[in-house]
Amino acid sequence: MNAHQSFAVGQPIAPPEAMAHAAAEPDAMVRFDSISKTYPAYRGKPGVNALQDIDFVIPRGSITGVIGRSGAGKSSLVRLINGLEKPTTGRVIVDGNDISSLAGRELRLAQRSIGMIFQHFNLLSSRTAADNIALPLEIAGWAKVDIKARVTELLALVGIGDKHDRYPSELSGGQKQRVGIARALATRPSVLLSDEATSALDPQTTRAILDLLASINRELGVTIVLITHEMSVVRQLARDVVVLDAGRVVESGHVADIFTRPQHPITQSFLAEVIGDSLPVSLASRIVAEPSAGGQAVIRIQVRGAGAGDTVVARLARELGLDVALLSARIDEIGGQHVGSLVLGIPGREDVHARVLAWLSQYQFPAEHLGYVA
User: Fold this and answer.
1) Using 50, 70 and 90 to split pLDDT, how confident is the model at 263?
2) 3-class SS at 173?
3) Distance between CA atoms of 248 and 197, rounded to whole angstroms?
4) Coil, helix or strand for 243?
5) What is the DSSP string of 102-135?
6) Which whole-number Å values give the CA distances from 263 to 59, 256, 271, in the listed order?
7) Distance between CA atoms of 374 and 366, rounded to whole angstroms?
8) Quick check: 308 pLDDT over 50?
9) Residue 285, SS3?
10) DSSP of 310-361, one letter per residue?
11) Burial class (CB in 10 A: 0-12, 13-18, 19+), 13
């Protein structure tokens, strides 16, 4: 969960490390191997290349966010993981099984190890919460006594043990989604797919559902794949993120790396929606495009590590011999790491802020010039 904290003082500077060296490949729960997916022309509509050249791994036990705009290929990716679609080329390996090659009974058995939660819950209105959760167990042929025990266990796990006999119409949106999560976990899957599962919920309920998913990942070891168009969801829950655009992976990595060093314009636009409004209103209203006599240039930088913020300000002032003002600071815990955003005021001359940006670049602190204040 995000935590807003003040920067500690006096700790060593912790600039972002250089791009990581290639490491041993993690134990893969899901592997996309040279995947493409093309939908043929239909009723006069042209064919669509939904996915192209997809190669990445989702580590076992991880929480991985897959983010993209509408039409980026997220839904196709989900349907390949759970075997509802076959790739045009390549293979999808889930928990060691080539799910893209399975059919019939073999596919149905493999799909029991892949749970799915949906944006609009997809509950049967004629069934109680307990009966909705029981449905996949009935289909799998469980005995009634075992179904009853498993349903009771799952209702408790998702925090709605008192809603056993309630119908969907009697439940709030968050309670419906908890039923959906319990149903997805019924057959003890190793992978849980979350397809825009919080998009229909208010912010407070979203946080509660994401906390529940984090707990499920931690306690049960279930690999979670978050399909979303909201970077705020990725920030709160995921450790790794894959960015899709026009059917291709344009960026991927640890979520803290992506937040501090986004490389692709689509990633930068996602981040702008999350951090673009992070300036205090009193500061944002004063920023102008042109410098004024005696004014300050406003620079925003990204830092990594608790305590890095205050230290970088002191070091910048000392090494360049400048008066540096800390105008705004925020630090979040993202993917288990502290990521900070500092807004600094420095002397407003163009040569000065050029020197500052060069110094920050030397130490690999991502930075942007926001404008000027009087």
Assistant:
1) confident
2) helix
3) 23
4) strand
5) --HHHHHHHHTTEEEEETT----TTS-HHHHHHH
6) 23, 13, 11
7) 24
8) yes
9) coil
10) HHHHHHHHHHHT---EEEEEEEEEETTEEEEEEEEEEE--HHHHHHHHHHHH
11) middle
